[in-house]
Specification:
CATH class: Alpha Beta
Strand content: 15-25%
Shape: globular
Strand order of the largest sheet: 5-4-3-6-7
CATH architecture: 3-Layer(aba) Sandwich
CATH superfamily: Glutaredoxin
Distance between the termini: 14 Å
Order of helices and strands: EEEHEHEHEEEHE
Number of strands: 9
Number of domains: 1
CATH topology: Glutaredoxin
Radius of gyration: 14 Å
């Protein structure tokens, strides 16, 4: 698994509509998240990523989620959870997952503007999601937003 301080490999994948996204084209930091629709922890975590996307609507960063499922399963999951950010389809052999080697789903990588991994979060941890929010806000020069309230009805953490 890639860790903090390592260079994030570049990747290019299509979204649900076939539009290609290249991680290297992002202006500013990238939040890359690996997930699967059959992952119960992903059911909890991905709506918080939607909150993150809504909290920082600027073009100064990019949220790229990498689905390890096929197009149909990924689209169904995205629709059921109201996801509006790019859901990328990895495809056969999981080439990007092979490069990043996440130990579980979901795994989140905060990649800085110089393409160095600044933070890794495996599973679902509210405090880590809020830390990603704080770091992202610092990169963007904005006030940090709380993404995961402690008492919102979901557990504080759940392993992936």
């Amino acid at each position: 698994m890639l860790d903090v301080g390592e260079q994030a490999p570049a990747f290019k994948l299509p979204d649900l509509n076939g539009k290609l996204y290249e991680s290297q084209d992002a202006q500013g930091p990238v939040v890359a998240v690996f997930w699967k629709s059959a992952c119960g922890t992903c059911d909890i975590a991905l709506p918080y990523l939607q909150r993150l996307a809504e909290a920082y609507p600027s073009d100064g960063w990019q949220l790229l989620t990498v689905s390890q499922d096929d197009l149909e399963e990924s689209a169904t999951f995205a629709r059921q959870h109201g996801l509006t950010f790019p859901v990328l389809i990895e495809g056969e052999g999981w080439p990007v997952s092979q490069q990043y080697d996440p130990e579980a789903t979901p795994t989140l990588y905060l990649i800085g503007p110089e393409r160095t991994i600044e933070m890794v979060s495996v599973g679902f941890y509210k405090e880590e999601l809020n830390e990603v929010s704080r770091r992202l806000a610092a990169h963007l020069g904005e006030a940090p937003q709380v993404i995961a309230e402690e008492d919102d009805g979901n557990p504080l953490f759940r392993p992936g």
